[in-house]
């Protein structure tokens, strides 16, 4: 078998067959964009706009409480405009941006909330989920709001980064100043890595060394911390430092995708390649005959093993960036 997975179309087809929430539509479309599958990601951007709600939130087929998740669809709308010249796509991206900048609920210190309600009894809606670091700041950055993007990331770091362990916690109620889910969720740290890497790439393009250098250390800290907690085959447990937690391939592919991107863009050294390759090979062996990734955190609750569109997307991203090295 070649170094790259030789049946990526099966993984893509399985992903497209899965039901999708707003964030899933976004990360799936982004994965196909990064894999160069124009015939797929442009129609997905189109559909995200057609399912935009009155507030300007993209891909709102379900997920009515979502604030940050719809923004995961934003970049592909921008890229579809750049590719086609059709204002329909630009207007979709601008509507999403306008919602984030002017309508979305925020914490007292200005961070865009993850949802417009709390799914946890006894907590307010003014919550940050580490997932949101992937959904919102990269889109803000590519839409020309690099300062706002960086402001958001800095507050995520302030609220959710565990400097003792160099990992992110999952959920915090900022208004009450207490954690809702104080665990080192592997997929959450994967979301953070992928989001930070995309912002670093944009900062690099804009020659914003100040932003790039600030994020570079966090990026490497999280990579190194995850490597220390990796299993012998290169994958991670769903809760990184919980030996009783199940094995999760989603975070493994998010980690690998971030490493491959970082090497490709010169963020990190080739020393990290062996860790990404190990995770990639382990997950590749866990893909069934239908292209479905097994042993991943399962949608919609992500607290037990199952399947998910984001797991499929993470593998597609990892595969796409691996092919560029």
Please give the CATH class: Mainly Alpha
**Average pLDDT across residues?**
96
Count helical runs. Answer: 13
- Taking pLDDT < 50 over at least 5 consecutive residues as the criterion, the unreliable ranges are none
Helices and strands, in order, run as: HHHHHEHHHEEEEHHEEHHEEH
Number of domains: 1
Q: Explain this structure to me?
A:
The chain has 325 residues and is mainly alpha-helical. The chain has helices at 8-17, 22-34, 38-50, 74-84, 87-103, 132-135, 137-142, 146-160, 186-205, 209-228, 249-265, 273-284, 309-322; strands spanning 127-129, 161-162, 167-168, 171-173, 178-181, 236-237, 247-248, 296-297, 305-306. The chain has a three-stranded antiparallel β-sheet with strand order 1-4-5, covered by helices on one side. A hairpin with a 4-residue loop joins strand 4 (171-173) and strand 5. Helix 1 (8-17) runs antiparallel to helix 13 (309-322), helix 2 packs antiparallel against helix 3 (38-50) and helix 11 packs parallel to helix 13 (309-322). The mean pLDDT is 96.
Q: Summed up, what is this model?
A:
The chain is built from 13 helices and nine strands. The strands form four sheets. It has a three-stranded antiparallel sheet with strand order 1-4-5, with helices on one face. It has a two-stranded antiparallel ribbon with strand order 2-3. A hairpin with a 7-residue loop joins strand 8 and strand 9.
């Amino acid at each position: 078998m070649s170094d790259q997975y030789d049946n990526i179309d099966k993984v893509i087809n399985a992903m497209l067959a899965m039901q999708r929430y707003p964030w899933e539509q976004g990360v799936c479309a982004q994965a196909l964009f990064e894999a160069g599958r124009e015939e797929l990601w442009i129609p997905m951007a189109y559909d995200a706009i057609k399912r935009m709600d009155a507030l300007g939130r993209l891909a709102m087929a379900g997920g009515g409480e979502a604030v940050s998740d719809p923004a995961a669809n934003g970049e592909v709308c921008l890229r579809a405009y750049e590719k086609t010249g059709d204002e329909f796509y630009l207007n979709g991206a601008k509507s999403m941006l306008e919602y984030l900048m002017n309508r979305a609920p925020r914490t007292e210190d200005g961070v865009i909330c993850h949802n417009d309600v709390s799914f946890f009894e006894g907590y307010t809606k003014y919550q940050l989920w580490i997932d949101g670091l992937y959904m919102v700041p990269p889109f803000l950055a590519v839409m020309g709001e690099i300062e706002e993007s960086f402001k958001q990331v800095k507050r995520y770091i302030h609220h959710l980064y565990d400097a003792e362990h160099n990992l992110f916690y999952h959920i915090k109620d900022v208004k009450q100043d207490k954690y809702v889910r104080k665990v080192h969720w592997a997929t959450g740290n994967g979301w953070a890595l992928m989001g930070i890497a995309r912002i670093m790439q944009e900062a690099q393009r804009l020659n914003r060394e100040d932003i790039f250098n600030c994020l570079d250390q966090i990026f490497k800290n999280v990579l190194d911390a995850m490597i220390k907690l990796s299993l012998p085959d290169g994958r991670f447990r769903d809760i990184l430092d919980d030996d009783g937690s199940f094995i999760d391939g989603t975070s493994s592919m998010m980690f690998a995708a971030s490493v491959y991107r970082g090497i490709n863009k010169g963020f990190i050294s080739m020393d990290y390649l062996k860790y990404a390759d190990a995770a990639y090979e382990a997950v590749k062996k866990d893909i069934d005959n239908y292209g479905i990734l097994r042993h991943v955190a399962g949608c919609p609750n992500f607290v037990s093993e199952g399947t998910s569109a984001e797991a499929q997307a993470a593998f597609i991203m990892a595969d796409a960036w691996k092919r560029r090295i």
